[in-house]
Amino acid sequence: MERTFLMVKPDGVQRNLIGEIVARFEKKGFQLVGGKLMLITRELAEQHYGEHKERPFFGELVDFITSGPVFAMVWEGENVIATARLMMGATNPKESAPGTIRGDYAVTVGKNIIHGSDSPESAVREIGLFFKEEELVSYTKLINEWTN
Ligand code: RTP
Ligand code: MG
After folding, report:
1. CA 68 to each of CA 8, 30, 41, 86: distance values in angstroms, whole numbers, following the listed order
2. 64 CA closest ligand 1 atom index
3. Which of 30, 39, 122, 127 could hold 77 in an S-S bridge, CB 3.0 to 4.6 Å?
4. Which residues are catalytic?
5. CA 23 – ligand 1 centroid, Å
6. ipTM of this model?
7. Which residues of 3-37 are buried (b: 16+ CB within 10 A; e: fewer)?
8. Which of 61, 111, 130 to mutate to test ligand 1, by most ligand atoms within 8 A of the CB atom?
9. Is 9 within any annotated ligand binding site?
10. Where is the protein localized (predicted)?
11. From ligand 2's centre to the CA of 118, what distance in Å?
12. Which of 115, 31, 33 is nearest to 77 (CA)?
């Protein structure tokens, strides 16, 4: 089954949005297989956002993502990588549709509440950066018979 890496960013944690965000993915029908509240080191932040290291906002991005606790998660389900990106909304909250997480809760691109892997390759890479295999739990939920 497909897996993705999602993370409530420091602004989402400070604004008490962990529960709301987890609830959206649970109600959708996806399954949580790992989750933890953690501080990101600069080294991990620079690896995680390595694709952006030449961008002008890279320093600010690393400062922001290391500025307080994040809630890191792995979610599982059919097409979860692309569907989670749709549920998050566009990167810039000025363009994210109402009804999406960023559309409903964020105002500015630098504080956009949630991260989600953008491809199967990113998902594998990011899950490996943030979680040990033994921190992920595979289990069967009978309710999934009604969604899958
Ligand atoms: P993320 O990686 O955090 O899930 O966001 P994303 O895929 O939607 O967007 P991405 O292009 O990967 O950008 C990573 C984060 O960098 C910040 N950003 N700032 N100031 C700017 O113009 C700018 N552009 C991007 C955003 O916080 C974005 O989430
Ligand atoms: Mg990205």
Report:
1. 11, 27, 10, 26
2. 27
3. 30
4. 115
5. 23
6. 0.94
7. bbbbbbbbbbbeeebbeebbebbeeebbbbbbbee
8. 61
9. yes
10. Cytoplasm
11. 6
12. 31
Question: Is position 57 annotated in a ligand binding site?
Answer: yes
Ligand 1 centre and the CA of 139: distance in Å?
A: 32
The structure tokens listed for 20 are: 């709301």
Question: Does 42 appear as a known binding residue?
Answer: no
Residue-wise pLDDT for 74-132, tens only, equals 999 999 999 999 999 999 999 999 999 999 999 999 999 999 999 999 999 999 999 99
Residues 100-133, buried b or exposed e (16+ Cβ, 10 A)?
bbbbbbbeeeebbbbbbbbeeebbebbbeebbee
Residue found under tokens 């694709």 = 51
Sheet containing 70-76: give its strands across.
31-38, 70-76, 3-8, 114-116
